[in-house]
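Changelog-adjacent note: as of this version, every example in the card shows the full chain rather than a window. The one below runs 66 residues end to end.
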Amino acid sequence: MEDQNPLLTAILLTHRNQVALVESVQLISRWFQQNGLSHVTEALQVHMEQVVNNALHINKLLEGLE
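Full-length structure tokens:
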């Protein structure tokens, strides 16, 4: 990754952060759901879908740059 241009590296790292955040929120959501707080997970679902869709789209774009 250090051979790439700095902008591409920054975009790739930002994307990796986004994916890690999604996974973290999913873990927290499972805990909420297991502890009877399903209304919280329902509220997060719409936002999580948007983040996942964005991450998939970014991933496709990055594949073409590497």
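Structural remarks: Residues 6-65 form one domain.
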